[in-house]
Amino acid sequence: MKAITLLNFKIILLGLTTFALLYPLAAMAQITGSNYSYFGVNGNIGFTDDDNTSIEDFGILVNTKIPITGNLSLRPAVIFADDTSYLIPVTFNFSFSQTQPLVPFVGGGVVFGPKDGLLLSSGVEVRLGDEFVVNGGINAGFIDGKTNTGLYLGLGFIFPKD
User: What is the CATH number of the domain that holds 131?
Assistant: First the structure.
């Protein structure tokens, strides 16, 4: 019962934090180059099995991209699998032009879950018009001297609209 209470607290905390960050930034976001926000749902496939995080499990990854400034973005995510893990990376977006639909990114941050640690995240997003983006990547969590890796791929909904 204690684990359920802690899980609910983490979900509420992440939701409130994400809302607090999204609300002002979403209003300022422009849909050009890599400077747009989206909310996505992805499949996650794990490559390791250390039971440290959900990065290494088969599950659902719910993510968002929030432009911070220039080519930097905050990309918080939650992985729902055997356990729940929270990923909070800051990434550098390699946007080569304002009209380029392909945006690779790389960055780092933290992962919280059954165990906490550092996170490396890289991937690519491909914009499909003004409403959708395909996004995918690889996450690597470094916890207790072990590396937890996983691949995700899914679809995001871009907001706000022009």
Answer: 2.40.160.20
Domains: count for the chain: 1
- Taking CA atoms, 81 is separated from 6, 45, 51, 53, 162, in Å, by 16, 10, 11, 9, 35
Would you call 124 helix, strand, or coil by DSSP?
strand
- What phi, psi does 100 have (nearest 5°)? -70, 125
pLDDT single digits (tens) 112-160: 988 899 999 999 999 998 899 999 999 999 998 899 999 999 999 998 7
Domain extent for 82: 2-159
Decide: helix, strand or coil at residue 43: strand
Q: Are 87 and 67 in contact (CB under 8 A)?
A: no
Q: Helix, strand or coil for residue 4?
A: helix
CA distances 106 to 15, 20, 30, 35, 93, Å, are 24, 24, 21, 15, 7
3-class SS of residue 58 = coil
Please spell the DSSP secondary structure of 80-98, one letter per residue.
ESSSEEEEEEEEEE---ST
Question: What does the radius of gyration of the chain's CA atoms come to, in whole angstroms?
Answer: 15
Please say whether the beta carbons of 154 and 136 come within 8 A: yes
